[in-house]
Specification:
43% of the residues lie in helices and 16% in strands. It is built from seven helices and six strands. α3 crosses α4 (91-104).
Length: 206
């Protein structure tokens, strides 16, 4: 069993990584594999809404998003991490998730997911709400912790001093491990995943 953790910060080993690493440590202690994939290295193109991924099986922009999509097919859980920029998730992670869920959402359906954000001071709950919407629209069980899954600090050292935040990350990792193991046990006992309901697309004028 494996969990993919996406780091949407422009800083590879910054505050967001520090929070994700704490989650990964807890998952590892529970016997799960983890991989932290950094998405913030280069500017990430947004979704063009071209629909080409339906024919290609991947996004037409062949970059780290397609790498994440391939890893999503074999992972059992997903954790998305982002710094808070203007009370929202980073531009990198927003563009990446728009494309990832449009092109490879089926590979993530029903897999447990969680969002983690890091902030110097404020805006964290708004960023969490934004990220959690990707999971809830894709039928992914959202894993919670003992508090909202955020850390505070302006440097990795300051984040590590956020003892409550670090404890929240540890609890999140343990809760995710428990849920993934429970799903695996249910599957082994013959409990099948719910069948998809045929979609009905409407708008507000018809």
């Amino acid at each position: 069993m494996k969990v993919l953790l996406l780091n949407g910060s422009p800083h590879e080993k910054g505050c967001t990584y520090t929070a994700l690493d704490q989650v990964a440590r807890a998952l590892t202690e529970e016997g799960l594999e983890t991989e932290i994939l950094w998405l913030g290295r280069d500017a990430t193109a947004g979704c063009a809404g071209c629909g080409a991924c339906r024919q290609l099986g991947k996004c037409v922009h062949d970059d780290v998003v397609n790498v994440a999509a391939e890893k999503a097919r074999t992972c059992d859980g997903l954790v998305v991490g982002s710094p808070v920029h203007y009370a929202a998730a980073s531009g990198q992670i927003t563009c990446a998730l728009d494309r990832l869920f449009y092109s490879a959402g089926a590979a993530l359906r029903l897999k447990p997911a969680a969002a983690v954000v890091s902030a110097r001071r404020a805006g964290a709950t708004a960023a969490l709400d934004q990220l959690n919407k990707y999971f809830s629209i894709n039928q992914m069980p959202v894993v919670s912790s003992r508090y909202w899954t955020m850390v505070h600090g302006n440097t990795p050292d300051e984040v590590r001093q956020d003892e409550e935040g670090m404890a929240v990350m540890t609890t999140l990792g343990r809760n995710m491990a428990w849920l993934i193991k429970s799903i695996a046990a249910g599957r082994a006992a013959g409990i099948e995943a719910p069948a998809p309901v045929p979609p009905a697309r409407t708008n507000f004028i018809r």
